[in-house]
Amino acid sequence: MMAALSDFHFMRPLWLLAILPAIAVWLAWRRMGDPAWRWRGVIDPELLPHLIVGADRRARMGPVAWGLVASVITAVAVAGPVWRRAPSPFAEARPPAVVVLKATPSMQEDDLAPTRLDRALQKLSDILAAREGAATGLVAYAGSAHLVLPPTADSAVVLDMAKAISPQIMPKEGDDLTAALALASRALAGTPDGGSILVLADEIPARTAAVGAPVTVLALRPPGRDMQDMDEAARAAGARLVPLTIDQGDVATVVRALDAGDTARAAPGEGERWREDGYWLAFPLALLALLWFRRGWVLS
Length: 300
Known about the structure:
The protein is α/β, with parallel strands linked by helices. Helix content is 36%, strand content 17%. It is rod-shaped and about 110 Å long.
């Protein structure tokens, strides 16, 4: 309750100035409708209420008085009273992600048909389809790391670029995942929302350094293969390991992790807007409008 009161404000406060002319009209009407107003300088004030017929008419709420109430309610409604937030319809539905693809000779082994690299591309295609519209970047690495694409919403381009990656085009042999993660983290730093990193690899070096962004590793090893070494290395690097499955279970797990993004980096209230609740005042306005159909009401 206190938080709502502290957040209460008007989106268009200048509309509240419309109340002033409404009050001026009401005061002028009240003065003109007061039968005792013209005699106050002539008759003793103590006797005036008893000598003037209809002197108590001011106490009744007439059409102009109710019009003032309606004007105040309308001005408040148009001014846009707000005290709570709602998700913006224009906010990005999913946080960005950077895919880190390993391109070493081991990724061409055929224990995953047709090869580990081909299976990685198949899984990447499914993940991109499940996150359609989300910004995705691409980093390729072997003995060195290289930014292929910064985060983009065009998933078709990301997949086409990933298909062009192979061990043969990498300039240096090796397995420098630490450099790849650092490069992916820098790519995410240029995005407004907190994002995460997806690693497609068959091995994690034991001394891989952790980065600030959340890291998910899809293990490109045959289902049932021992994952203890990769699991330990992933935990040491602050990453989450997702074993490969023959169905879409691994894809669903990865998509949930990427959709969670980096909530710690996301600014409070980012992707939200103030929710206007002035439309609720339309109901008392409708009730006031019914009074104008009351028989016998006149403005005089």
